[in-house]
Protein backbone atom coordinates (compact mmCIF):
# COMPACT_ATOMS: atom_id res chain seq x y z
CA UNK A 1 0.00 0.00 0.00
CA UNK A 2 1.25 3.45 -0.80
CA UNK A 3 2.39 6.08 1.63
CA UNK A 4 -0.20 8.75 2.50
CA UNK A 5 0.03 12.11 0.80
CA UNK A 6 1.18 15.09 2.80
CA UNK A 7 -0.41 18.47 2.11
CA UNK A 8 2.05 20.42 4.18
CA UNK A 9 5.25 22.51 4.18
CA UNK A 10 6.50 20.01 1.60
CA UNK A 11 4.42 22.22 -0.68
CA UNK A 12 6.70 25.10 0.15
CA UNK A 13 9.23 23.26 -1.93
CA UNK A 14 6.60 22.19 -4.43
CA UNK A 15 5.87 25.87 -4.91
CA UNK A 16 9.40 26.38 -6.14
CA UNK A 17 8.67 24.43 -9.31
CA UNK A 18 5.35 26.10 -10.12
CA UNK A 19 5.05 28.45 -13.08
CA UNK A 20 3.84 31.31 -10.88
CA UNK A 21 6.91 31.15 -8.69
CA UNK A 22 9.42 31.47 -11.52
CA UNK A 23 7.48 33.91 -13.75
CA UNK A 24 9.81 36.86 -14.31
CA UNK A 25 9.23 40.52 -14.62
CA UNK A 26 10.90 42.59 -17.33
CA UNK A 27 14.63 42.94 -16.81
CA UNK A 28 14.67 40.51 -13.88
CA UNK A 29 16.35 37.51 -15.54
CA UNK A 30 19.88 38.32 -14.41
CA UNK A 31 18.72 38.75 -10.82
CA UNK A 32 17.32 35.22 -10.80
CA UNK A 33 20.70 33.89 -11.91
CA UNK A 34 22.39 35.73 -9.05
CA UNK A 35 19.87 34.37 -6.55
CA UNK A 36 20.24 30.82 -7.85
CA UNK A 37 24.03 31.01 -7.51
CA UNK A 38 23.64 32.44 -4.03
CA UNK A 39 21.25 29.68 -2.94
CA UNK A 40 23.51 26.99 -4.38
CA UNK A 41 26.43 28.42 -2.40
CA UNK A 42 24.33 28.42 0.76
CA UNK A 43 23.25 24.80 0.23
CA UNK A 44 26.86 23.78 -0.44
CA UNK A 45 27.93 25.29 2.85
CA UNK A 46 25.16 23.46 4.69
CA UNK A 47 26.20 20.23 2.96
CA UNK A 48 29.79 20.39 4.17
CA UNK A 49 28.68 21.22 7.71
CA UNK A 50 26.18 18.36 7.80
CA UNK A 51 28.69 15.79 6.53
CA UNK A 52 30.72 16.17 9.69
CA UNK A 53 27.73 14.99 11.70
CA UNK A 54 26.81 12.03 9.50
CA UNK A 55 29.43 9.66 10.86
CA UNK A 56 28.25 9.72 14.46
CA UNK A 57 24.55 9.73 13.60
CA UNK A 58 24.72 6.78 11.19
CA UNK A 59 25.97 4.40 13.89
CA UNK A 60 23.10 5.32 16.22
CA UNK A 61 20.54 5.12 13.43
CA UNK A 62 21.78 1.70 12.33
CA UNK A 63 21.47 0.27 15.84
CA UNK A 64 17.91 1.58 16.12
CA UNK A 65 17.02 0.21 12.70
CA UNK A 66 18.28 -3.29 13.50
CA UNK A 67 15.86 -3.42 16.42
CA UNK A 68 13.00 -3.57 13.91
CA UNK A 69 12.33 -6.88 12.17
CA UNK A 70 11.72 -6.61 8.45
CA UNK A 71 8.52 -8.09 7.04
CA UNK A 72 7.45 -7.12 3.54
CA UNK A 73 4.16 -9.01 3.29
CA UNK A 74 2.39 -8.42 6.56
CA UNK A 75 1.97 -10.06 9.91
CA UNK A 76 3.05 -8.79 13.31
CA UNK A 77 6.67 -8.00 14.13
CA UNK A 78 8.41 -6.90 17.28
CA UNK A 79 8.65 -3.14 17.64
CA UNK A 80 6.49 -2.16 14.66
CA UNK A 81 3.19 -2.37 16.53
CA UNK A 82 4.55 0.10 19.10
CA UNK A 83 5.52 2.79 16.59
CA UNK A 84 2.06 4.41 16.59
CA UNK A 85 -0.33 3.95 19.50
CA UNK A 86 -3.74 5.20 20.58
CA UNK A 87 -1.88 7.81 22.65
CA UNK A 88 -0.63 9.25 19.35
CA UNK A 89 -4.22 9.41 18.11
CA UNK A 90 -5.24 11.21 21.30
CA UNK A 91 -2.44 13.69 20.74
CA UNK A 92 -3.52 14.17 17.13
CA UNK A 93 -7.14 14.89 18.10
CA UNK A 94 -5.94 17.62 20.45
CA UNK A 95 -3.57 19.11 17.88
CA UNK A 96 -6.30 19.29 15.25
CA UNK A 97 -8.22 21.66 17.51
CA UNK A 98 -5.44 24.20 17.07
CA UNK A 99 -4.58 24.55 20.75
CA UNK A 100 -1.10 25.91 21.47
CA UNK A 101 1.04 25.98 24.58
CA UNK A 102 2.59 28.94 26.32
CA UNK A 103 3.10 32.09 24.25
CA UNK A 104 2.83 30.38 20.84
CA UNK A 105 0.51 32.16 18.41
CA UNK A 106 -0.95 31.21 15.04
CA UNK A 107 -0.08 33.35 12.01
CA UNK A 108 -2.49 33.36 9.05
CA UNK A 109 -0.81 32.26 5.83
CA UNK A 110 -3.49 31.92 3.14
CA UNK A 111 -7.27 31.75 2.66
CA UNK A 112 -8.51 31.11 -0.90
CA UNK A 113 -11.42 29.34 -2.56
CA UNK A 114 -12.94 28.44 -5.92
CA UNK A 115 -16.15 26.71 -6.98
CA UNK A 116 -15.09 23.21 -5.91
CA UNK A 117 -12.30 23.69 -3.37
CA UNK A 118 -11.29 26.08 -0.59
CA UNK A 119 -8.08 26.18 1.40
CA UNK A 120 -6.84 28.07 4.43
CA UNK A 121 -3.70 27.61 6.48
CA UNK A 122 -1.88 29.13 9.42
CA UNK A 123 1.46 28.43 11.05
CA UNK A 124 3.36 28.94 14.26
CA UNK A 125 6.91 28.34 15.41
CA UNK A 126 7.02 26.54 18.75
CA UNK A 127 10.15 26.97 20.80
CA UNK A 128 12.86 24.44 19.90
CA UNK A 129 10.61 22.76 17.33
CA UNK A 130 10.10 22.96 13.57
CA UNK A 131 7.38 25.13 12.07
CA UNK A 132 3.90 23.82 12.75
CA UNK A 133 1.20 24.19 10.09
CA UNK A 134 -2.55 23.78 10.52
CA UNK A 135 -4.66 23.74 7.36
CA UNK A 136 -8.28 23.06 6.38
CA UNK A 137 -9.21 22.06 2.82
CA UNK A 138 -12.85 21.64 1.77
CA UNK A 139 -13.76 19.72 -1.39
CA UNK A 140 -17.27 20.17 -2.76
CA UNK A 141 -19.19 17.21 -4.22
CA UNK A 142 -16.86 14.69 -2.60
CA UNK A 143 -17.31 11.83 -0.14
CA UNK A 144 -15.02 11.09 2.78
CA UNK A 145 -14.23 7.62 1.39
CA UNK A 146 -13.11 9.05 -1.94
CA UNK A 147 -10.92 11.67 -0.29
CA UNK A 148 -9.44 9.07 2.08
CA UNK A 149 -8.47 6.76 -0.77
CA UNK A 150 -7.07 9.65 -2.79
CA UNK A 151 -4.81 10.81 0.03
CA UNK A 152 -3.54 7.30 0.76
CA UNK A 153 -2.92 6.18 -2.83
CA UNK A 154 0.67 7.12 -3.54
CA UNK A 155 0.85 5.14 -6.76
CA UNK A 156 -1.83 7.38 -8.21
CA UNK A 157 -0.11 10.42 -6.78
CA UNK A 158 2.97 9.76 -8.89
CA UNK A 159 0.82 10.37 -11.94
CA UNK A 160 0.10 13.99 -11.09
CA UNK A 161 2.69 15.04 -8.50
CA UNK A 162 6.10 15.09 -10.18
CA UNK A 163 7.92 15.85 -6.94
CA UNK A 164 7.54 12.23 -5.82
CA UNK A 165 10.12 10.33 -7.86
CA UNK A 166 10.28 7.05 -5.94
CA UNK A 167 8.26 5.09 -3.40
CA UNK A 168 8.51 1.60 -1.98
CA UNK A 169 6.58 -0.34 0.62
CA UNK A 170 8.84 -1.69 3.37
CA UNK A 171 6.52 -3.38 5.84
CA UNK A 172 2.88 -3.95 6.75
CA UNK A 173 1.70 -5.07 10.19
CA UNK A 174 -1.89 -6.19 9.71
CA UNK A 175 -2.48 -6.71 13.43
CA UNK A 176 -1.84 -3.07 14.34
CA UNK A 177 -2.62 -1.57 10.93
CA UNK A 178 0.77 0.14 10.79
CA UNK A 179 2.59 0.50 7.49
CA UNK A 180 6.16 1.60 6.80
CA UNK A 181 7.37 3.04 3.52
CA UNK A 182 10.22 4.97 1.94
CA UNK A 183 9.82 7.87 -0.48
CA UNK A 184 12.23 10.08 -2.41
CA UNK A 185 11.13 13.60 -3.31
CA UNK A 186 13.05 15.94 -5.61
CA UNK A 187 12.70 19.69 -5.28
CA UNK A 188 14.33 22.41 -7.42
CA UNK A 189 17.83 23.50 -6.29
CA UNK A 190 17.83 20.98 -3.42
CA UNK A 191 19.34 17.58 -2.78
CA UNK A 192 16.58 14.93 -2.98
CA UNK A 193 14.88 14.33 0.36
CA UNK A 194 14.39 10.82 1.69
CA UNK A 195 11.43 9.97 3.93
CA UNK A 196 11.17 6.75 5.94
CA UNK A 197 7.73 6.94 7.54
CA UNK A 198 5.26 4.87 9.51
CA UNK A 199 1.54 5.57 9.34
CA UNK A 200 -1.77 4.30 10.64
CA UNK A 201 -5.43 5.03 9.85
CA UNK A 202 -8.47 4.97 12.15
CA UNK A 203 -12.18 5.23 11.40
CA UNK A 204 -14.57 7.03 13.73
CA UNK A 205 -18.29 7.75 13.72
CA UNK A 206 -20.12 9.05 10.68
CA UNK A 207 -17.33 8.00 8.30
CA UNK A 208 -14.75 10.23 9.93
CA UNK A 209 -11.16 9.15 9.33
CA UNK A 210 -7.87 9.93 11.08
CA UNK A 211 -4.32 9.30 9.90
CA UNK A 212 -1.04 9.79 11.74
CA UNK A 213 2.38 9.74 10.03
CA UNK A 214 5.75 9.89 11.76
CA UNK A 215 9.41 9.31 10.95
CA UNK A 216 11.05 6.01 11.84
CA UNK A 217 14.02 3.80 10.97
CA UNK A 218 13.94 0.50 9.09
CA UNK A 219 16.67 -2.06 8.21
CA UNK A 220 15.57 -2.08 4.57
CA UNK A 221 16.14 1.67 4.27
CA UNK A 222 19.81 2.31 4.93
CA UNK A 223 21.06 5.87 4.56
CA UNK A 224 22.57 6.95 1.24
CA UNK A 225 24.85 9.93 0.68
CA UNK A 226 22.97 11.06 -2.41
CA UNK A 227 19.85 11.79 -0.33
CA UNK A 228 19.11 13.95 2.70
CA UNK A 229 17.20 11.89 5.26
CA UNK A 230 14.40 13.86 6.90
CA UNK A 231 15.06 13.24 10.57
CA UNK A 232 11.92 14.68 12.15
CA UNK A 233 8.44 14.30 10.70
CA UNK A 234 5.05 14.46 12.44
CA UNK A 235 1.87 14.86 10.44
CA UNK A 236 -1.75 13.89 10.79
CA UNK A 237 -5.18 14.62 9.39
CA UNK A 238 -8.90 14.19 9.94
CA UNK A 239 -11.40 13.74 7.11
CA UNK A 240 -15.07 14.32 7.86
CA UNK A 241 -18.29 15.36 6.18
CA UNK A 242 -19.26 19.03 6.19
CA UNK A 243 -22.65 19.24 7.96
CA UNK A 244 -25.56 20.06 5.67
CA UNK A 245 -23.47 20.06 2.47
CA UNK A 246 -22.35 17.68 -0.23
CA UNK A 247 -18.74 18.30 0.73
CA UNK A 248 -16.03 17.01 3.02
CA UNK A 249 -13.07 18.63 4.71
CA UNK A 250 -9.59 17.51 5.64
CA UNK A 251 -7.92 19.22 8.58
CA UNK A 252 -4.17 18.66 8.77
CA UNK A 253 -1.45 19.45 11.28
CA UNK A 254 2.15 19.09 10.16
CA UNK A 255 5.71 19.48 11.46
CA UNK A 256 8.83 18.61 9.53
CA UNK A 257 12.53 19.36 9.76
CA UNK A 258 13.99 18.87 6.30
CA UNK A 259 16.93 21.23 6.76
CA UNK A 260 15.39 24.19 4.92
CA UNK A 261 15.56 27.87 5.74
CA UNK A 262 12.42 28.69 7.71
CA UNK A 263 11.68 32.14 6.27
CA UNK A 264 12.12 31.12 2.66
CA UNK A 265 9.99 28.00 3.18
CA UNK A 266 7.17 30.13 4.62
CA UNK A 267 7.25 32.59 1.72
CA UNK A 268 7.41 29.88 -0.92
CA UNK A 269 4.55 28.05 0.76
CA UNK A 270 2.32 31.12 0.72
CA UNK A 271 3.22 31.84 -2.89
CA UNK A 272 2.70 28.40 -4.41
CA UNK A 273 0.32 26.42 -2.23
CA UNK A 274 -2.88 27.52 -3.93
CA UNK A 275 -1.74 26.39 -7.38
CA UNK A 276 -0.80 23.04 -5.84
CA UNK A 277 -4.21 22.67 -4.20
CA UNK A 278 -5.93 23.51 -7.48
CA UNK A 279 -3.86 20.88 -9.25
CA UNK A 280 -4.71 18.35 -6.57
CA UNK A 281 -8.41 19.14 -6.89
CA UNK A 282 -8.30 18.27 -10.60
CA UNK A 283 -6.52 14.99 -9.81
CA UNK A 284 -9.16 14.19 -7.16
CA UNK A 285 -12.00 14.58 -9.68
CA UNK A 286 -10.25 12.20 -12.07
CA UNK A 287 -9.56 9.71 -9.26
CA UNK A 288 -13.25 8.88 -8.90
CA UNK A 289 -13.05 6.99 -12.22
CA UNK A 290 -9.52 5.65 -11.69
CA UNK A 291 -9.50 1.89 -12.31
CA UNK A 292 -6.73 1.24 -9.80
CA UNK A 293 -8.91 2.34 -6.91
CA UNK A 294 -10.92 -0.88 -7.10
CA UNK A 295 -7.87 -2.91 -6.08
CA UNK A 296 -6.32 -0.35 -3.74
CA UNK A 297 -9.35 0.36 -1.50
CA UNK A 298 -9.89 -3.23 -0.23
CA UNK A 299 -6.29 -3.55 0.93
CA UNK A 300 -6.60 -0.22 2.74
CA UNK A 301 -9.84 -1.22 4.46
CA UNK A 302 -8.19 -4.32 5.95
CA UNK A 303 -5.73 -2.12 7.85
CA UNK A 304 -8.05 0.62 9.13
CA UNK A 305 -8.71 0.38 12.88
CA UNK A 306 -11.63 1.75 14.87
CA UNK A 307 -11.22 4.83 17.04
CA UNK A 308 -11.36 3.72 20.70
CA UNK A 309 -14.74 4.61 22.29
CA UNK A 310 -13.19 6.86 24.94
CA UNK A 311 -11.39 8.89 22.29
CA UNK A 312 -14.53 9.08 20.18
CA UNK A 313 -16.37 10.68 23.09
CA UNK A 314 -13.51 13.04 23.75
CA UNK A 315 -13.39 14.12 20.13
CA UNK A 316 -17.03 15.16 20.33
CA UNK A 317 -16.81 16.94 23.66
CA UNK A 318 -14.01 18.79 25.39
CA UNK A 319 -10.46 18.69 24.08
CA UNK A 320 -9.31 20.16 27.35
CA UNK A 321 -10.38 17.04 29.19
CA UNK A 322 -8.41 14.91 26.76
CA UNK A 323 -5.32 17.02 27.35
CA UNK A 324 -5.56 16.71 31.13
CA UNK A 325 -6.08 12.93 31.02
CA UNK A 326 -3.28 12.47 28.51
CA UNK A 327 -0.65 13.75 30.90
CA UNK A 328 2.76 12.26 30.49
CA UNK A 329 1.60 9.77 27.86
CA UNK A 330 1.42 12.54 25.31
CA UNK A 331 4.69 14.12 26.28
CA UNK A 332 6.49 11.14 24.76
CA UNK A 333 5.01 11.58 21.31
CA UNK A 334 5.62 14.21 18.68
CA UNK A 335 8.01 16.43 20.64
CA UNK A 336 11.46 17.42 19.43
CA UNK A 337 14.31 16.92 21.86
CA UNK A 338 16.28 20.11 21.34
CA UNK A 339 19.13 18.84 23.50
CA UNK A 340 19.98 16.28 20.82
CA UNK A 341 20.59 18.97 18.21
CA UNK A 342 24.22 19.99 17.88
CA UNK A 343 24.52 23.74 17.29
CA UNK A 344 26.79 25.19 14.61
CA UNK A 345 30.21 26.37 15.69
CA UNK A 346 30.74 30.16 15.99
CA UNK A 347 33.04 30.16 12.94
CA UNK A 348 30.47 28.36 10.80
CA UNK A 349 27.73 30.78 11.90
CA UNK A 350 29.98 33.71 10.98
CA UNK A 351 30.62 32.33 7.48
CA UNK A 352 26.93 31.56 6.91
CA UNK A 353 25.73 34.99 8.00
CA UNK A 354 28.48 36.66 5.99
CA UNK A 355 27.34 34.79 2.88
CA UNK A 356 23.75 35.83 3.51
CA UNK A 357 24.74 39.48 3.91
CA UNK A 358 26.78 39.56 0.69
CA UNK A 359 23.91 37.99 -1.23
CA UNK A 360 21.52 40.57 0.20
CA UNK A 361 23.73 43.48 -0.86
CA UNK A 362 23.96 42.12 -4.43
CA UNK A 363 20.20 41.57 -4.75
CA UNK A 364 19.20 44.86 -3.20
CA UNK A 365 21.55 46.86 -5.43
CA UNK A 366 19.07 46.57 -8.36
CA UNK A 367 15.54 47.79 -8.63
CA UNK A 368 13.71 45.11 -10.60
CA UNK A 369 13.54 41.60 -9.21
CA UNK A 370 11.76 38.32 -9.72
CA UNK A 371 9.75 36.63 -7.01
CA UNK A 372 12.72 34.29 -6.45
CA UNK A 373 14.87 37.32 -5.71
CA UNK A 374 12.24 38.77 -3.38
CA UNK A 375 12.15 35.55 -1.37
CA UNK A 376 15.93 35.44 -1.07
CA UNK A 377 16.11 39.10 0.00
CA UNK A 378 13.44 38.56 2.66
CA UNK A 379 15.31 35.53 3.91
CA UNK A 380 18.61 37.46 3.95
CA UNK A 381 17.23 40.43 5.86
CA UNK A 382 15.41 38.25 8.37
CA UNK A 383 18.48 36.13 9.02
CA UNK A 384 20.85 39.07 9.31
CA UNK A 385 18.60 41.14 11.55
CA UNK A 386 18.07 38.15 13.83
CA UNK A 387 21.82 37.61 14.02
CA UNK A 388 22.35 41.30 14.75
CA UNK A 389 19.74 41.26 17.50
CA UNK A 390 21.34 38.23 19.12
CA UNK A 391 24.76 39.86 18.94
CA UNK A 392 23.41 43.07 20.53
CA UNK A 393 21.88 41.10 23.36
CA UNK A 394 25.15 39.28 23.89
CA UNK A 395 27.12 42.52 24.10
CA UNK A 396 24.50 44.08 26.36
CA UNK A 397 24.96 41.42 29.00
CA UNK A 398 26.79 42.77 32.07
CA UNK A 399 30.32 41.46 32.41
CA UNK A 400 31.58 40.30 35.75
CA UNK A 401 34.08 42.56 37.46
CA UNK A 402 37.33 40.62 37.39
CA UNK A 403 39.43 43.29 39.05
CA UNK A 404 40.88 42.39 42.35
CA UNK A 405 39.51 44.50 45.17
CA UNK A 406 41.85 47.17 46.39
CA UNK A 407 42.44 47.19 50.11
CA UNK A 408 42.80 50.58 51.69
CA UNK A 409 45.06 50.56 54.69
UniProtKB/TrEMBL annotation:
Residues 398-409 have a biased composition (Basic residues). The keyword Magnesium does not apply. GO terms for cellular component: cytoplasm. It holds the Pfam family START. Residues 103-289 form the START domain. The keyword Transmembrane applies. Residues 388-409 are annotated as: Disordered. InterPro entries: START-like_dom_sf, START_lipid-bd_dom, START_lipid_transfer. One of its GO terms (molecular function) is lipid binding. The chain crosses the membrane at residues 28-49. Keywords: Membrane, Transmembrane, Transmembrane helix. SUPFAM superfamilies: Bet v1-like. It comes from the Eukaryota. Signal peptide: none annotated. Gene3D superfamilies: 3.30.530.20. Residues 388-397 have a biased composition (Basic and acidic residues). This is StAR-related lipid transfer protein 7, mitochondrial.
